[in-house]
């Protein structure tokens, strides 16, 4: 007797016990996956809320930084601004590091090195540089969060597919086969009972 479980079914008590034990493990796994799915869904909703707030904050910061940059150009002039920015020696370096969230590897963006403007420029340029430094930090955090959301959503989709497969295909198939074996064993038991009763009836008649 073959089934969708990928193994030949033996209508025996031993095989029935094996199947019941196996479906027990599968149901435990199903419950754990359900918990994981719910936790991922909650984490995704919370992360989306945070992302919305951070994006609004970032938009305000962009507008503020651009206004301050415009004021700096108006105050110092284009030539002076270009002259001062050309004096920047170091470039910006960012490391992408792994971080685990609920067993999912997500990127963490860390500034490794950045240009220093503390002792080289006047207060106007330093103020603008500080604004754009904070803006860059905000951009990094938003980029991190967007990547995190994408990976959580991907894992949630995979987990949901597994939950649905177990709920709608695997577990029902196990239970169908278990019921089939139980019915077969009941039939065999009934046949054995009838056969035994018939034999006893014949023996009783012969003795009479």
Radius of gyration over all CA atoms, rounded: 35 Å
Helix content: over 70%
Can you count the beta strands? 2
Largest sheet: 2 strands, antiparallel
Low-confidence stretches: none
The tally of structural domains comes to 1
Helix and strand run? HHEEH
Could you tell me the mean pLDDT? 87
Give the helix/strand class.
mainly alpha
- CATH class type: Mainly Alpha
CATH architecture: Orthogonal Bundle
Instruction: Name the beta content range.
Output: 5-15%
Number of helices: 3
Give a structural overview.
This protein has a single domain, classed as Helix Hairpins, CATH 1.10.287.3240. With 208 residues, the protein is mainly α. The chain is rod-shaped. The protein has three helices and two strands; from the N terminus they run H-H-E-E-H. The protein has a two-stranded antiparallel sheet with strand order 1-2. 76% of the residues lie in helices and 9% in strands. Helix 1 (13-76) crosses helix 2 (78-86) and helix 1 packs antiparallel against helix 3 (123-207).
Which terms would index this structure?
208 residues; mainly alpha; Helix Hairpins; 3 helices; 2 strands; 9% strand; rod-shaped
């Amino acid at each position: 007797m073959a089934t969708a479980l990928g193994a030949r079914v033996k209508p025996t008590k031993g095989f029935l016990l094996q199947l019941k034990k196996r479906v027990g493990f599968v149901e435990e796994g199903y419950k754990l996956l359900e918990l994981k799915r719910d936790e991922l869904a909650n984490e995704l909703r919370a992360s989306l809320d945070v992302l919305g707030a951070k994006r609004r904050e970032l938009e305000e910061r962009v507008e503020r930084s651009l206004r301050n940059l415009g004021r700096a150009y108006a105050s110092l002039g284009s030539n002076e601004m270009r002259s001062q920015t050309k004096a920047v020696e170091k470039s910006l370096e960012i490391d992408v590091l792994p971080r685990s969230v609920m067993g999912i590897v997500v990127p963490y963006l860390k500034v490794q090195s950045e240009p220093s403007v503390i002792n080289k420029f006047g207060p106007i340029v330093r103020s603008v540089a500080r604004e754009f430094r904070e803006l860059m930090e905000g951009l990094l955090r938003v980029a991190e969060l967007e990547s995190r959301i994408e990976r959580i959503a991907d894992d949630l989709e995979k987990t949901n597919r597994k939950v649905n497969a177990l709920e709608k295909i695997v577990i029902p198939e196990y239970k169908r086969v278990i019921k089939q074996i139980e019915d077969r064993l009941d039939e065999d038991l009934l046949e054995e009972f009838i056969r035994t009763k018939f034999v006893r009836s014949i023996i009783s008649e012969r003795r009479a």
